[in-house]
Amino acid sequence: MGDAQTLSALEPQKEVYAMQRAIHLARRAAGATSPNPMVGCVIMQTPGTIVGHGWHEGPGRDHAEVMALKEAGEAARGATAFVTLEPCNHTGRTGPCAEALIDAGVAEVVYAVADPNEIAAGGAKRLQEAGVRVRSGLCAAEGRDLIRAWLHAIKAKEPFVIGKTAMSLDGRIATSTGESQWITSPESRRAGHWIRAEADAIIVGAGTIITDDPALTARLDDDVRRPLRVVLDSTARTPPGAKVFERGGAGAVLATTNAAPFERLCAFERMGVEPLILPADEAGRPDLASLLGALHARDVYSAMVEGGGALLGAFFDADLLDELHLFVAPKLIGGGKPAFGGDGVGALIDAARFEFRQRDHDGPDQYWIGRRQSEVQ
Length: 377
What we know:
The radius of gyration is 23 Å and the shape is elongated. The protein is an alpha/beta fold. Helices cover 27% and strands 25% of the residues. 45% of the residues are buried.
């Protein structure tokens, strides 16, 4: 969008630097902005001096453009604003960023990704109507990657689902006696906590809670975050006093079915845990597609499935995983519990559902990230 013939007074490498800086700034609020996207903004004057920078810190807080404009002050007049997402043209908890940029006298706006949200879109058009030059697509791939979960949730009307597991080389998450702590290294466990911290919700099965009693918090040094914790339990057999149900943060939900005894559901409610009654699938378990729809209705845009193997296998069989994070320790266990249960694929062609790449990682383990082929840019 915008006049393709318009040439910025800034050098191309300085434009790329400005946008990459904006993307870096946006990541400062990872895990805190939902249901809004992460957005960063840099305001640059010719010949390449940054006069303002900002990022969206969360719902109800200043948008990235407004934060950057406040820092820039009068220096924003005649400058170029680099924004990771098309400025909004919507009045919600805050005013439209397009109008703020116009009022500040910005001469040009360059953004990485167009806003697909019908409620907030139209900022580029409004800027052009006011005489502001507009260009799009700078660092577009990096911009889409930044908000891939949000873009997916807006389009699919369901959360972006991330599967995470820590396993041995032969794909086991526990020994035959159930011992699982710890298969992978401290470095891998810390990386896993970062993934938790960026998710709106953590989903686990009842078996994991009964066996390990995890708190499912994201522990990052002195910072402890508590995303929404969702336990799938068709008969409410999980102990209401389990650590996962401790109050705080975004709270906890027991995703169950009509097979759960009424008295048991009342016990959870007394503990401050909300029972979510879902349709049962053919096996009598909470229907996963219905779960995702219910979570999206609660503004959950990203959900992490952390186990166990039966639950990860169920999500895989239902083709509901959008991204995978696999931590693989250089150990052989044999027998034991597989990382992915369920039926699996019947034909090898279906095993190419994800594109995998290995990420640089501290410690002895391998760290693989798989992106669904349709999500790979």
